[in-house]
Amino acid sequence: MTEALQQTGLRASQLVAPPTQFFIPAAASLQERRPRTLKHGDTFAVFDHNGDVLSGPGSPEGLFHRDTRYLSHYYLTIGGERPMLLSSTLRDDNATLTCDLTNPDLYDETGRCLIAHDRIHMRRTRFLWQGTCYERLAVRNFDEAPHEITVEITFESDFADIFEVRGRVRARRGTLLLPEVDSSHVLLSYRGLDHNPRSTALRFDPAPAQLEAGKAVYRLRLAPGEARSLFIEIGCDVNGAEDPPSRLFFRALRDARRALRRSSSRAATVQSSNEIFNETMRRSVSDLYMLMTDTEEGPYPYAGVPWFSTVFGRDALITAWEMLWLDPAVARGVLLHLAANQATEFDPDTDAEPGKILHEVRYGEMAETGEVPFRRYYGSVDSTPLFVMLAGAYFERTGNRVVLETLWPHVRAALDWIETYGDRDGDGFVEYGRRSDKGLANQGWKDSHDAVFHADGTLAKGPIALCEVQGYVYAARLAASEISRELGHDGIAEEQAQKASELKSRFDAAFWDGELGTYVLALDGDKRPCRVRSSNAGHLLWTGIVPEERAETVVRALMGPSSFCGWGVRTIAAGQARYNPMSYHNGSVWPHDNALIGTGLARYGFREEAARIFEGIFSAATYIDLRRLPELFCGFPRRETQGPTFYPVACTPQAWAAGAPLLLLQACLGLRFDAEARQVIFEQPILPEFLGEVVLRNLRLDGGTIDVALRRSGTHVVADVLRRDGPVRVIVTT
């Protein structure tokens, strides 16, 4: 994925790890907490089920803005006691979090019960909008007698950098400034070592009976059946508004919901005969649009909450690919934003090289001061070829020549990077190796420190040529050939096609291992093969670099019991050195990895196997809170009547995990587009056993939209056009 996470039982202060690996200690299991998450733009929040923030070692809870935690403690009590949880849920579109609470038995100092349990109902409704968290706390007395109750909210801000929250220990920090307090407003401020001021502004409406720098106290007298609403507004570096929070709450809620509807209305929709699958797809699409952030160049999916809520190159490129059939505007936004931030100079501290595509951007204090190298970091070996691949796929999907012309100089620069900096030793393969000890040691998608190794478990030394990266380069050259030909650069088109053909032959000779029955994981710096069975080989099928005669053997290796655990293909096959089903990259199951593998299987005609992967990933989702696929789960074998084993610090929601069902559905349906002919094509479609019918609505091509129903009929799938707007045709091949 992104910066390497490692599971460990140690506390952050006990970690003895290379500082450049940026570990996330598993001091607190996200799966155990199952937190509630909200996000808008550069702001996200992680709450417990009550809607509180109870941060501690390893806890991700809090309100975060641009990689800084602006609220580290937020705790509600009634009569001095924590309310009891009734329910806690997110709207289907992720717009709001609603927590229903009630009072426990409340006693006076003599032990007399003042209010019996379940008499006072409290409903917290909360959402994010433009750097501010809005909350309405509705309190109602359902008792037959009047009651006087005390509602107290304690709060605090530590202004911790996201890397501190993840367990990084800092030698120095900035300065907490004196709080400012009036009758209804508290301002908590901090000046960091980067000299940037940061502030958390809390406003209360109506004004509390008591307000201090870390506490607001309401004393409410409620008649039988009476309800009161309290409004709280928590702003991150926002200017004070003149309107009261009670008025702004409803205005902002309206705007937030409209914005979500507006962005998601571009997308095609999926409905099926399986209601649980429908729930899974609705959650996936809602998560994708919640993670979407508007940049100057267009929509951009941030990678995931809590640790990766920012621009990542590789993650967004793959997420945009997963969404391409559904909403190609996302690919356009990703391509244009990454083009605008393409490296133009050489900088060893950030692994930047001319033509290289971003790995990651960070805005926090530690990035600004250089304590971590991720302010604008380029340590990703695969983002650059993936960028060219997506540019070609976007044009094939949309036929948008204007965007293609805009991207052309950046495609050329990316190809130049592949030729020069990408190929460290001139052998025709693209390798990686960090330019300074500040960067990531491993720079493929499996970027934990122990993810690339030899058959005996010895870690590979660089520069390292990953197998899947060569596949990406092959596909990038083919995409560049098509782009060049479309733009009238026939000489470049022929050159790129020839280089792709040569790479395909060289790659097979250097990476194929007949004894393994698959392609090796990588070549190390001495060109010794890392003879390990891995999921990486499945990406090769996706790119098309595998010769037809090898495909079936590769598929057998991927779908055999040592690799396919029932939920999906493991990152590393059981029995290999360093195999551990609880590890981050060495035996776990990643939904996005499996989506790419499934697409590769379908590409070579193995649609039944692709459907098996789809069934495994979907079945895993049925056991997961909110039907929300996490970043990864453990690779233990699937057992009847039992769900998957969760990975403790997996991000959820995670963009490329949320997009995985979309891509797997496309793979099984054989769905592709011919923009020039205005055709929607279903090539040898199949439906997995859990789906009898799928309806795709609002499939867009330039000049029209179409709704299509696909139904299983015996051993075949038939398509019916339900609605057509414009000259769009449907083609089904068998």
TrEMBL record:
Q: Write down the superkingdom of origin.
A: Bacteria
Taking every annotated instance into account, which residue ranges of this chain make up the domain Putative glycogen debranching enzyme N-terminal?
A: 38-232
Which Pfam family name is an example for this entry?
Answer: GDE_N_bis
Domain (Mannosylglycerate hydrolase MGH1-like glycoside hydrolase) spans 315-617
Which GO BP terms apply? carbohydrate metabolic process
InterPro entries named in the record: 6-hairpin_glycosidase_sf (IPR008928), 6hp_glycosidase-like_sf (IPR012341), GDE_N_bis (IPR032856), MGH1-like_GH (IPR054491)
Protein's UniProt name: Amylo-alpha-1,6-glucosidase
